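Students often ask what a holo structure prediction actually looks like on paper. The answer is less mysterious than it sounds. You provide the chain, you provide the ligand, and the output is a string of discrete structure tokens encoding the 3D arrangement of the protein together with calcium ion.
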Amino acid sequence: MNLLLVEDDPRLGPLLRQGLAEQAHTVQWAQARGVACDALRGARFDLVILDLGLPDGDGLEAVRDWRASGFKTPILIVSGRNRPEDRAKALELGADDYLPKPFGLAELLAKMRALTRRDAAEDAVLVHKGIRLDLVGRHVFANERPVELSDREYALLVHFMRNSGRVLTRTLLAEKVWSSHYDVDMNLLDVFMSRLRGKLETALGRPVFRTVRGIGYRLL
Ligand code: CA
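The corresponding structure tokens follow.
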């Protein structure tokens, strides 16, 4: 798994990073909330492990902000705050689970497994405002009516559904849909986007994408 570990404790941080790396996970260690925000913008993680008391702010505020801006990555809170109301607040704001400190590595690994299993099951179907995408059967429905998409239109839509709320750059989209961006004609990307948009807007009767001029597109 690709993990983002947000922990400012100078002893616990490296210890967890090493323990997780030994289990064949890739770990990016962030010691502050700001660093974690930058990391989340720059890469896709399977799980965020988040301490609450951070030098530049509270982890709970980070959870709220990330969820508000559409990040779907599971978040596991690890904290010394262990009152039921702390846990309830964390889950309410969009965290997925809560592991009180101190904990053992085995306990952390078990929580991680449970969380990502849940994520994988939910990931088989992506839903966003009337659009339902069945990844197993490769079907797309708009208001429960099937929509026929070409392979590239489908690949584009998967990526938008997994990153709803975010502006996706044309370069990034091209990389997702073609294996390399070097041989991609950006005009062709715009043609695929325009077809995908046309099909979905006809089916849903509302705007589906916002074009961010010179940058890319956002799923509405
Ligand atoms: Ca801390």
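Helices lie at 12-22, 33-42, 59-68, 84-93, 105-123, 151-162, 170-177, 186-204.
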